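Hello,

Our lab assistant flagged a job as stuck in the queue for most of the afternoon. It eventually completed. Since we weren't sure the result was trustworthy after the delay, we are filing this so someone can double-check. Below is the sequence as submitted and the structure that was eventually returned. Let us know if re-running is recommended.
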Amino acid sequence: MPDPAPTAASTAAPALLALNRASLMRGGKTVLADLTLAIHEGEHTAILGPNGSGKSSLMRLVTRQDYPVAHRDGPGPMQILGQDRWDVTELRTQLGVISADLHQAFLQAGGGGARTGREVVLSGFFASQGIFPHQQVTPSMRERAGHALALVEATHLVAKRLEEMSTGEARRILIARALVAEPRALLLDEPTTGLDLVARQHFLEMLRVLARQGRTLILVTHHIEEILPEIQRVILLREGRIFADGPKPEVLTNRTLSELYGTTIHLHPHQGYFTALPGEA
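-- returned structure --
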């Protein structure tokens, strides 16, 4: 169900995402507690934390699958692109989502796995899982879909069925699907789940290209080694709260990560990436 009509945006350039003491309840329990942060366009950001820290719950807020607890007074708990109310379909053209869950949703939808790469990409214009009879695909849409496929080096997958693709091929198709609507940012929620070592590295390198081209990336992960060199801000979550937030060199430290995970962590930098080893020097 779409949100009510949007409110007026601020005259200043709004943040892509702004949380103001945002909390989320589920099953009578608080899963996110008083989160306050702002992520702006061009600010490549990683959101990191242990399993159960609230990363997926935060993404469900952003994609409007869940809603934060309303404040009794003052500003609302969350704004996206300066608005606290959105038509969900329109929002999905502004923030492109790529996740393992979206991949599975396509495969599990009726006939979703039988859709070709071209059909999956074109569905990005309608925020749907496929193309349906009432949806009109224009020549301009087909041209933009072709450009997005070329951008992620997936033109050879246009006629291949999604269920026949490798996981790496399917993720390329989902990125092209997100790009066709020319979104303001890409939200990547554990996007490398299911990828083997080589496919993951190819995927990360493709994200680096998009970041350098100016596409804002918000990466949600529990793998420190997936934080791209282009990402300069890191937000750490623990038990539904912000544990640390700031420039990457200040947040990704042995001390901070050891406190976050409750065990000794040693970081090892390599060509702009980091690996983290527990209990080793």
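-- support follow-up --
The delay was a queue issue, not a problem with the job. The result is valid. Residues 1-11 have pLDDT under 50 and may be disordered. The CA atoms of residues 182 and 191 lie 19 Å apart.
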